[in-house]
Design brief:
The protein has 259 residues and is an alpha/beta fold. It is 41% helix and 15% strand. Bound molecules: 2-phosphoglycolic acid.
Length: 259
């Protein structure tokens, strides 16, 4: 149905020292190297301090790197922040608007939109996370929340070709229990595609990769990927286990028939 790139993205969150990150990345690489699964872009998102060493470590591999966040300004008096300029050359992707940043760090709709624009302006591909909380879902507001997150997140983007959307219902993240594929497809194939078509046009909307994230593991990933409206997974906990993550990459290729 869609020409969007298939992606398997590992979000390591605030885990791994530099040494551990190098060992984990090497392990993932080794497991995918012998018989590389076709048609899937593998992306590892380690903590900032591991981006430079992993960039060197993985430079001859098919594995791409992503950051977990960025500041919207290119430089300045923002102690402790990392700018898009600093990420250029170190990674191709950057996660923006993850629910942990929206809810724990209180990042609002507007700031997420600024970060998305800053990423695209710097030549990075933002992986924009959207998703409703449990109380928003119970109030019947899931679609409206996701549509507003898309509208504000993409407000500065005229050409969304290099943008990835990740639907991560907040209640399914780190919960051990994922959303069901039917519930997810309802949003990814419904509200998300409709809003993208609304903001751009139908053909453009179909080319944007939409990922699912929230308690993804090798046992459940295939059921999500069998949904035509899902082009990959954003994986937290299971991406810290090289065997499980490599398996998820392989299962992505298998489910989509690209291997
Ligand atoms: P999880 O995290 O796979 O551990 O639920 C997903 C995410 O937060 O990106």
């Amino acid at each position: 149905m869609s020409a969007a790139t298939l992606l398997a993205v590992g979000n390591w969150k605030m885990n791994t020292t530099v040494q551990e990150a190098m060992a984990l990345a090497s392990d993932v690489r080794r497991r995918l190297e012998d018989d590389p699964p076709g048609g899937v872009q593998t992306v590892l998102c380690p903590p900032f301090i591991s981006l430079a060493p992993l960039h060197d470590l993985l430079k001859d591999s098919n594995i791409a790197l992503g950051a977990q966040n960025l500041h919207p300004q290119t430089s300045g008096a923002f102690t402790g922040e990392i700018s898009p300029t600093m990420l250029q050359g170190l990674c191709r992707y950057v996660i923006v608007g993850h629910s942990e940043r929206r809810h724990i760090m209180r990042e609002g709709y507007h700031v997420v939109g600024q970060k998305v624009k800053a990423a695209v302006d710097a030549g990075l591909t933002p992986i924009i996370c959207v998703g409703e909380t449990l109380s928003q879902r119970r109030q019947g507001a899931a679609e409206a929340v996701v549509r507003r997150q898309l509208e504000t997140g993409l407000s500065g983007i005229a050409d969304p070709r290099h943008v990835v959307i990740a639907y991560e219902p907040v209640w399914a993240i780190g919960a051990g229990v994922p959303a069901t594929p039917v519930v997810v497809a309802d949003i990814t194939g419904g509200a998300i595609r409709t809003e993208l078509a609304n903001l751009y046009d139908d053909a453009t909307a179909q080319k944007i990769a939409v990922l699912y994230g929230g308690s993804v593991n090798p046992e459940n990933v295939t059921a999500f990927l069998e949904q035509p409206s899902i082009q990959g997974a954003l994986v937290g906990g299971a991406s810290l286990d090289a065997a499980q993550f490599a398996q998820i990459v392989r299962l992505t290729a298998e489910a989509k028939g690209t291997d």
